[in-house]
Amino acid sequence: MIKKKLFLITATVFFIQISNAQTDSTGYFGQTPPGESAVVFAPGLISNRDVYTIAFSPEGNELCLVWPPNLYYSKLIGSTWTKIDTAYFEKGPVDGSVNFSPDGQSLTFAKPNPVAGNPNNSDIYFCTRVDTSWSQPMPFPNVINSTDREAGQAMTMNKTLYFSSGRIHATGADVFRAKCINGEYTSAVYVPNLSTQYDEDGVWVSSDESYAIVESWQDANKKDLYISFRKPDSTWTKLKNMGTKINSASQEVAGKVSPDRKYLFFASNRSGAAKIYWIRVDNIIKNLKKTVFAPIVSKQIHAINIKTDSVISYAIPKNTFTCEYGTDSLKYTATLNNGSALPSWLIFNSDTRTLSGTPTKAETDTIKITATNMDTVSASCTFKVTVSSQTSVDQFKEKGFEIFPNPTTGQFTISFGSSPIQKALIEIYDLQGKQVLSRTFRNTAKATIDLSGLPNRMYVVKVIADGVNYEDKILKE
């Protein structure tokens, strides 16, 4: 059974002290629109007593609000709002949020419906538009309503219904979703990430399902408003607190964005009684999205040590960065740490994330790899590439090293001299820097390599044996 946490809300019915109709030229009761600081909406008119939630129709000409325990309604006719009065289509008590559907053809809210063993049960109801009026409320089917409390609902443009329900956890609510297919609702399913181990007692979802605002009890003492964004794979990002511009040390609930997507309306008891606040939120949401989808460095790249005249072909691991969009969405660039271009010998293929080239002199460079997502938000990591002098051919031959036959029709042998070496690593690369073969030999004076399975062409042979590094070319014909 879900505990009701409607803060500072009294069940006493107050007499509405509004006798005159309100003129309006803005669609918001003549109120001066706020900036990015939350202010009380319509003080003395709407926020003049405990109020839980407010909703404007998509056309901006209808208003519903919950002055507990009842639902109230007003309509804009010309430039004048009618008296805010008990909704003619619902005279009884309601529970939780009220919302218009994005097409303006439906109105949803929850009504108490006590059942055996659960006196706090509520079900979600809907009204449909009939000409210029609203029908009497009807309950959603049992695939949505259960014997546990359902409330805090919102409908998307394609009529998918998101709502909170206590059907899984007896001490808290989770977010569920039911799709409407051919006019029929499918069974409600639990929505990961919009639901947590905490109590999520209400949800609002944008008409295109691109983001959701959830009231969550993640703070042990109060609810805050959190946001989640829908990812390209249709899953949701983890809930992120909407920040101190919206949330306070008090309690914030019933958040929803205006139909024009400019303003967030929500209830807060930061000034004592529960009032409706509003704030300009389009840029706030845009910046929250950039934060949520920003690439993150998840794994550092180790330093690379190579010799002069040797071939480097190193692909930046795909798991170096993570991103909620998915790593396939990232675009990569490579520069020196100070932003300068890479050394002339080093080439970066952004499609394969591969650094390749052949250095000719000893040097040490700090390379910066930058990953940028589709919102042009970036993250970078750095690592060092150290080039040291290569052992010369003469030094190689002085030790008795020899490669034969060259050219070869398949097999060739590397002689390490008269004395066995303890360990030798032999790597074969094509001329594009791609490694095609690697073998390790121990305690031997010779090593035989078989190129029979490779195409006839020129290859680079790299030998690292007991501290000696050497590269040469071999032709397979």
Explain how this protein is built.
The strands form eleven sheets. Strands 1, 3, 4, 5, 6 and 7 form a six-stranded antiparallel sheet that branches. Strands 8, 9, 10, 11 and 12 form a five-stranded antiparallel sheet that branches. Strands 2-25-24-23 form a four-stranded antiparallel sheet. It has two helices and 41 strands. 4% of the residues lie in helices and 45% in strands. With 477 residues, it is mostly beta strands. Residues 1-21 have low confidence and may be disordered. The protein folds into three domains: 22-281, TolB, C-terminal domain (Neuraminidase, 6 Propeller); 296-388, Sandwich (Immunoglobulin-like); 393-475, Immunoglobulin-like, CATH 2.60.40.3080.
Number of helices: 2
Strand content: 35-45%
Helical amount: under 10%
Question: What is the level 1 CATH name of the largest domain?
Answer: Mainly Beta
According to DSSP, the number of beta strands is: 41
Q: Averaged pLDDT, please?
A: 89
Cα Rg: 34 Å
